[in-house]
């Protein structure tokens, strides 16, 4: 490599790093503000909003962790997300299996009905949903959040699963049938295990969707018993309006589960979340 | 076979179809939400009210404003960073992972964080300005700038998503095309103009689509940040609907607003698909096949 190309490369890399550095400052500043702010006391926050904590206070984080509210809301969020995901993936897989592998009159019509669900933003339905849930006495119940979330997750999940199930060769099913497997056994013991990657993708979509959900819990869960973390964070800020440092600690702790999940499953998370974009 | 279909069908009918149809029905009534079914039929009155509602009309204007800003600022920024991170330089994976972080955070939680950052009581943003000797700004309380602050936060939250889509689009272009063009003496600018840009077309068009649809349905972030204030200056269609329905109990009018939101998304989707996406999707929104197989 000549001196010139080496210099050009150095120059080029420097340009990259400047742009990437600016992007990093843009992205990281708010998160660092929350992380570090949680270690300050309110006086420090007022007087040196930009500096490092001095001294470092762990009290805000400990207070939030020692309060049962955070843990209960964390449990509620996890519980509602897991049950939503199980229901939407199980129900969608079953019907996608039928759409992909059975011939019957009205199949395409039925599929179009589900796919048309993609056209309805959840916000359009939230008001009548509230009235329906009130009629069924499902307000303040986790099912009032879980079932509508699962229902609105169906269209995309069905579309993704159906197109995957279709690609599994017919010979696999024939071989299973010859070996005496009925549709249930084929579905549970062969099709689903073979579809693990796509099941992971749609599960990530459902989990993240439920974890981030705000509008539905806001209207359904007015009592604290089943309230989820997004509701909890907004209410915590209302209650502790003057204690900014404590709210920052709560915000940071509420972000942590998603960040940890991302650290361990970034590949699945990115491909799952963007498949909603490219497939939708 | 019924056992395979019925759970999904029951869920879908009860919690998607019935509510959507119920909203369409209720939109033609004056109703406070009590007493079973609406009875006071008013025809198109709710829709007429809507067309004279200054808040609703301003909501539409803000959708347009945010869309224009996104196409002019957010998407080019995402595109530029994607092109940058496509280059081979040490550490690019770390940057790619970092830039996606805002997208994975919950909107409502992000909004609380930014409320504190842009707090009028010596918030972080004001402290940064003070460092440059500039006085504090009413970031979220000044009706002339609040929408731009919100746009900045939206950019922070969503550019990483578009960046990842652009990266995927760029990576799907075969390198051979570039090599062949280089052999023919094409310059870097020509490569970008005649290979990268046209072959990224489908990705660019889909991100504009997703950005617009997302803007039409915006709620969580803005509601937690400002509740649409001050004086409706940052209100979105979904917030107007929420306020009318859940705060003022004007269920009929709120239903009409939600139908308007649906129609806006639908009409945009159909027009965009017909005239812009065209070949990209081959009928993804209308054909029973979904264009996805």
UniProtKB/TrEMBL annotation, chain A:
Top-rank lineage group of the source organism: Bacteria
Compartments where found: Cell membrane
Transmembrane segments: 16-39, 78-99, 111-133, 145-165, 186-208, 247-265
Gene Ontology terms: biological process: transmembrane transport
Pfam families: BPD_transp_1 (PF00528)
Coiled coil region boundaries: none
Gene Ontology cellular-component terms listed: plasma membrane
Topology of the protein relative to the lipid bilayer: Multi-pass membrane protein
Signal peptide positions (record): none
Stored SUPFAM superfamilies: MetI-like
Domain ABC transmembrane type-1: 74-265
Keywords: Cell membrane, Membrane, Transmembrane, Transmembrane helix, Transport
InterPro entries for the chain: MetI-like (IPR000515), MetI-like_sf (IPR035906)
PANTHER family: ABC TRANSPORTER PERMEASE PROTEIN MG189-RELATED, ABC TRANSPORTER PERMEASE PROTEIN MG189-RELATED-RELATED
Family, similarity comment: Belongs to the binding-protein-dependent transport system permease family.
Protein's name in the database: Carbohydrate ABC transporter permease
Annotated source species: Glycomyces luteolus
